[in-house]
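Hi everyone,

Forwarding the result from last night's run.
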Amino acid sequence: MSQSPEKKQTWIIKAGSSLITNHGKGLDTAFISHWVEQIVALRKQNIDCILVSSGAVAEGLKRLKIKKRPHETHELRAAAAVGQMGLIQQYEMQFQKHDLHTAQILLTHDDLSNRERYLNARSTLKTLLAKNVIPIVNENDTIAIDEIRLGDNDTLAALAANLLGADTLILLTDQNGLYTDDPTQNKSAKLITRAQAGDANLIKMASKGKAGDLGRGGMLTKVSAAKRAARSGTDTIIAAGKKENILLRIAAKEDNTGTWISAGQEPLAARKQWLAGHLQVKGELLLDAGAIKVLSKKGKSLLPVGVLKCKGHFLRGEAVICKDSNNRSIAIGLINYNSEETRKIIGKSSQEIEKILGYIDSAELIHRDNLALN
């Protein structure tokens, strides 16, 4: 892992439909119980866990007595709505045995591409973790349309890793990991234990497998998710979810626990690289010399007091560029207030924000985690 055991880590853990629902025969309560017990143990090792759980559609199909996954979107949405009830009830019951609460987070691609919603989701997840709540994330299948749907929970898990700059993404499946060939067709296929996210050969090997009947993903979506997660410096592990204490064995860095795909970048550096290169700038801030020094030399957040002027029209969470008096670009970041609010608080101390706006969302205009120096 990219962080030492002494420092708190964040893991995104995803389990596929074949694990959660015991291949379509209803929720596998034994698996979920064992999964929950491992997560509780991980928390005692200073590892925060966010679950991305498949299974809502599959459980809904079982409850509705539909034997084969339908193609009609409205049928899938209905199944998701029915199945989500049982899925979340099961998680809440299992975690309550350990005096822990759960929180359901339903997302669409639109939620994560919209910068304000992106920051809201990130803030909510961080707050839940701080309050010792276990977030359970799933795609909002009941309202998602084809244009904005994520398509599979492997992708959703990777986006959650990007959202939080997670240390590790764990994709639990019914396979031991990624093989050099489809192991169901080629008995000589070998398990790949170590790889780099940028290795083009991974996609070729993953393409030889196929997705299951219950889920939308397959090994190809897992490799693609690993590549996406690497943008935020997140390492990915593809492992067999039914192996005894697989999560604890991964935490202990045991051998033969699946396919470990290294991001090859530190989380913060990768996140800032993403911020600098992939966002459309909506506004501009002119900084004073003190703010520039704090950002450039000390790696601090940008406070309102260090801003001289604000240009452009932007919403909370959109990208703005920070410049000096010579019009040189200093940094780019995601801003915590919209343009109208920003104009009211620039040059003011953080203690004055609530008095001026009537509320305070953050003491920083741009948090250092959402700021990339040029």
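The longest helix spans residues 73-96.

Cheers,
N.
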